[in-house]
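in:
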């Protein structure tokens, strides 16, 4: 199997994917947009142009471009019949989503985009436990420092006009988790952001998003960028009490516990079957809710 990497606007996610692919015996990697370091670290073959990546005929491709460039790159790859996974954030603005929606809707190959947390084992176990429960609502606390997004090479993620800022880039994780646990029919109702610690941010380091879900159920997402840890806490409220999970789970491998491994497996399985790992209607709803929260906040 051959997997292509298109763009390295952020390096952590594609690097993690490359390591997970190699663990699964996928060593034929091709990368476009590299300065040489990714190819050297992961044994990938670098190509000079996107057309060269398409010509290499990968069986699947991981896209990690800045949001404004995503629709054109996805159009080229998926238009050539290559299943695509778009690393978060796939969009930074409503215009990005409109253009991506047009591309995905017409693409002959499936396109997947989601937070890896959707496939975290603790989340999927919780969803199974709640299938017969009366769910009232979901609260997600996203604890993720914004300091990395204040560095020059990643500053675009902190810009509300390009990467969406903290409320969008980190809030997407929370909205994704609410969607995974409540199902379709999600929309943003209220949002607010503030700066408490990182006064050099272009956006905010703390935010809250209130979501309306199906059948009157609710979702609340707390985004805490004014922290030094990375942790995601989920509480699902039922008449009998709260069902909770905290990620990463104690003692677990973070790549497994945070969903990276299960996401790459889901993507590869879905690509082989000719479908998206997450239906585009679901992915679009998550992205739209996060963008609406950005405009409200």
């Amino acid at each position: 199997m051959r997997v292509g990497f298109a763009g390295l606007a952020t390096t952590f996610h594609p690097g993690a994917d490359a390591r997970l692919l190699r663990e699964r015996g996928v060593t034929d990697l091709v990368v476009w947009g590299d300065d040489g370091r990714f190819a050297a670290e992961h044994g990938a073959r670098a190509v000079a142009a996107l057309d060269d990546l398409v010509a290499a005929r990968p069986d699947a491709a991981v896209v990690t471009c800045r949001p404004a460039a995503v629709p054109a790159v996805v159009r080229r790859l998926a238009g050539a019949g290559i299943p695509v996974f778009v690393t978060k954030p796939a969009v930074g603005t409503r215009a990005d989503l409109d253009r991506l929606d047009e591309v995905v809707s017409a693409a002959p190959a499936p396109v997947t985009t989601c937070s890896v947390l959707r496939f975290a084992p603790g989340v999927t176990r919780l969803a199974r436990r709640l299938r017969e429960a009366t769910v009232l609502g979901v609260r997600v606390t996203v604890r993720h420092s914004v300091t990395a997004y204040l560095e020059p090479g990643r500053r675009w993620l902190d810009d509300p006009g390009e990467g969406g800022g903290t409320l969008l880039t980190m809030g997407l994780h929370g909205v994704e988790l609410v969607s995974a646990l409540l199902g379709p029919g999600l929309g943003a109702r209220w949002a607010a952001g503030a700066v408490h610690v990182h006064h050099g941010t272009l956006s905010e380091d703390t935010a809250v998003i209130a979501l309306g879900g199906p059948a009157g159920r609710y979702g609340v997402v707390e985004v805490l960028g004014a922290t030094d840890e990375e942790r995601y806490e989920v509480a699902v409220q039922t008449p009998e009490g709260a069902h909770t999970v905290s990620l990463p789970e104690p003692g677990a491998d973070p790549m497994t516990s945070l969903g990276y491994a299960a996401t790459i497996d889901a993507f590869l399985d879905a690509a082989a079957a000719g479908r998206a790992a997450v239906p585009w209607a679901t992915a679009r709803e998550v992205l739209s809710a996060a963008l609406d929260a950005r405009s409200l906040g």
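note: The CA atoms of residues 160 and 203 lie 6 Å apart.
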